[in-house]
Prior knowledge:
alpha+beta, 53% strand
Amino acid sequence: MFALQIHYSHDFQTSRDAVWTYLQDEDILRKTLPGCRKFERIGDDLYSSELGLDIGPVKGTFTGEVRLSDQRAPEFYRLLLKGKGKPGEVNADAKISLQDESGATVLTCDADVQVTGVLASVGQRVMGSVAKLILGRFFKAVATEMKQSA
């Protein structure tokens, strides 16, 4: 097992309230999560998920749970993720903050991630790059959804 810290930010050209609303929308999340095969509410702020990923050394299907906690709309929440798949297990605690910047929104994600199995063997540098790529795809897809709905 190894631990990884990830810092990522993304600029949205829309209001913080709009970004918050989209990031809380189950249908939007289902459409925008990379490789999402299933994303269903199973409790208050708790979701069951299945992702099929094929990015670099990260290949396989991961099933798990996603929990949103410590929500302070529209500025902050924590996303807790537990996922398992053939390549290993991932546990993540991501702190998501939204800053208002002159009508635009800067989203910052700071995550602590623990990885086991084959995933751990590929190393921190590779896993960090893959994680940032996945985050980038997700937030760009959310931005695209927002533009299409506008």
